[in-house]
Amino acid sequence: MTHSVAVVLIALAILLLIYAVMIAYLILINAKQKQEVTVNQNDYLIIFASQSGQAENLARQTALQLQEAGQTATVVDIQYLTVEQLLQANKVFWFVSTYGEGDAPDTARMAVKKLFRDSALDLSHQCYAILALGDNRYSNFCQFGQLLNQHLQQHQAQALFEMVCVDHLKQADINLWTQRLEQLTQQQLTAVEPAQNWHCFILKNRLCLNHGSQGNPIYQIQLSCAEGLTWSSGDILEVQCGNRLEDIQVFLQAQQQAVNENLLAALQFKNLRQFPEQLSNESFEDWVRRFDDLAIREYSIASIPQQGIIELVVRQEKTATGLGLGSGWLTEHAVPGQAIVAKIRANPAFHLKASHQPLILIGNGTGIAGLIAHLVQRQQWGDQQNWLIFGERQQQFDQLYKDQTQLWQNQGLLPYVDYAFSRDQAEKLYVQHILQQKSEQLLSWIEAGAAIYVCGSLKGMAQEVEQTLFNILGAEQLEQLRIEGRYQRDVY
After folding, report:
1. Do 53 and 23 touch, CB atoms closer than 8 A?
2. Which neighbouring-strand residues pair with 395?
3. b/e string for 430-455 if b means 16 or more Cβ within 10 A?
């Protein structure tokens, strides 16, 4: 090695050391700033616990409402909230989401235990209100909000008004929250609305991925989108469900209305099963405008913007009245070339970090969508240390994205792939069993800085995976991974 080459290498090493010190300093300062939020007694303390960003969005909108009305408000993420900050506050608004079967957001589970573990905690000086987000299709609707309410009451905090439960972001429920705030503040407030950014996508391709499967059909759905539309791997597409043409025609005939293009368009997304009574002297068109819209369904995006398409993986759901509202619309009722009204929702709790760390991807069923998007992104970044663990029923029929994963294996993007096909042997095999079998490899990857991303069904898969990780890593290390953002979940 020549003297000049040695000098260059030493200079590069010094620059890298300076860069690492600067990054560590910025991380330390950022963490310190998050912890040193001061809460004045006359401020509203607004706390959010969000899994996918919706509770945070509503919390920040409420803070703006209060500020426009001359009030002061401090917004804090529950994972950074300290007991001291909570004790400082006299007026607290909580914005908390529940997902799955009554689960708290991942950022909130340990935070709540930390905040309320002291039975002597005295919040008798404090008044509070809770806006709880949930989905009433689940039996434990807004359960985390209910649990939080119990904690606050047990520590003598006083409710300003009854908890407001929001069913799948229904505007009527959110409007009730605004009305309660107006009564409390004696101020007229601007309306709080979920972030709206609807687009028309075109249904381009639809392909069944599991012909012959014991399970319901799973479809790959491809939607063309406008140039310039951006999202990150891990994000969600919220789809406005629509009606079959035949159902709209039957409804119009029952109402003795002639079928025309205007009425077909007006009823495309309206709820034709439950609708208000028509008022006397009310025109048919005005009546239809008062109908509720059909529900919105959420799907993990399986592509990134550079591919030029929105790709989804949708399993047909079958109910007593036919196909599920969203799955039926996307997999059968909408026709190729039809406009699909939808919006992209950021899902920061499942975003990748461009850190070149090893990545362990775990999932089942349609959860393959979020994992595929991350692998496409990792390929773009040139990160090849990836390990995929995926579960479904039978290898013959349910090896979703088989050709793509095989190609990635050949290219070196996926040096490790493990499948758990539960019905291919007498004793059922699931992804958690793979983790247990490969526990030494898991520990080695974690020691090397790997992150774990889990996508798929909460009940069964994600719960069992978490218990297995708990058994292998221990509670302390698993929680540390969560704090560091190295254990992320998009489960449903």
Report:
1. no
2. none
3. bbbbbbeebeeebeebbeeebbbbbb
Largest CA distance in the chain: 95
Closest CA to 183 of 204, 203, 162: 162
pLDDT band at 374 (very low <50, low <70, confident <90, very high): very high
Gap between the Cα atoms of 133 and 462, Å rounded: 21
DSSP, collapsed to helix, strand or coil, labels residue 60 as helix
Cα atoms found within 13 Å of the Cα of residue 492, Cβ hemisphere only = 19
Q: What are the start-end ranges of the H helices in 308-461?
A: 325-328, 368-381, 395-398, 402-411, 431-437, 439-447
| CA distances to 246, 377, 451, 473 from 358, in Å | 50, 13, 6, 17
pLDDT exceeds 60 at position 181: yes
One-letter identity of residue 10 = I
Report helix, strand or coil for 423.
coil
CA distance 391 to 413: 20
- Among candidates 180, 302, 309, 322, which has minimal Cα distance to 241? 322
AA letter at 17: L
Beta pairing partners, 120:
none
What crossing angle do the helices spanning 143-154 and 106-116 adopt, rounded to 10°?
10
Q: Where are the alpha helices (DSSP H) in 89-158?
A: 106-116, 143-154
Angle (deg, nearest 10), helices 439-447 and 463-473: 70
Q: What is the mean pLDDT of residues 98-106?
A: 79
User: Would you say 293 and 271 are in contact if contact means Cβ atoms under 8 Å apart?
Assistant: yes
Check if the beta carbon of residue 157 is closer than 8 Å to that of residue 129: no
Sign of CA dihedral 95, 97, 102, 105: negative
d(Cα 258, Cα 245) in Å, to the nearest integer? 14
Residue 50, SS3 per DSSP: coil
DSSP category for residue 442: H
Q: Look over the chain and give the mean of its residue pLDDT values, rounded to a whole number.
A: 89
Q: Which among 188, 195, 148 is positioned nearest to 171, based on CA atoms?
A: 195
Tell me, what DSSP letter sits at residue 329? I
The rounded distance, in Å, linking the Cα atoms of 457 and 246 is 33
State the average pLDDT over residues 213-217: 95
For 449, phi then psi, to 5°, come to 100, 15
Could you report the per-residue pLDDT of 28-54, keeping only the tens digit for each?
A: 434 444 444 455 556 899 999 987 778
Judged against a pLDDT cut of 60, whether residue 3 lies above it is answered with no
The phi and psi torsions of 307 (rounded to 5 degrees) equal -80, -15
Residue where the block lists tokens 């529940």: 98
CA atoms within 13 A on the CB side of 335: 3
State how far the Cα of 389 lies from the Cα of 351, in Å rounded to an integer: 19
121 neighbors 155 (Cβ within 8 angstroms) = yes
